[in-house]
Amino acid sequence: MAQYFEAVGRRKESTARVRIATGTGVFTINEKPVEAYFPRTGDVPVILRTLEAAGQSPTLMDITVKVEGGGVSGQRDAVKLGLARALVTMDEGLRPTMRDHDLLTRDARIKERKKPGLKRARKAPTYTKR
Asked: Is 3.30.230.10 the CATH classification of the domain at 4-100?
């Protein structure tokens, strides 16, 4: 493989390792095409919006992603952040543009822990008088 730029994106329990290399426009996630890995409507455009914000054409680069953990939305957002970070390592001049589009901010919200005496983090059991 030729020279590539790598970055890591995280969201909830998901971690995505993104590699960008010059190439023919192949976009694979866990060795599957991006459309096959994210079949839900709207997931792929959210990821590709990162490339549009950077003014990059996806047909001129090969993007390889290894993503694990979490669910569909967490993985999608991890890929989005990893792609934005990889683009910035490729061209440092993109940093202000990516910041303006809020693509370099790590979403730190995670699942809250369960508390004793409750059913979930905040849901209390139903109160009964008798």
From this structure: yes
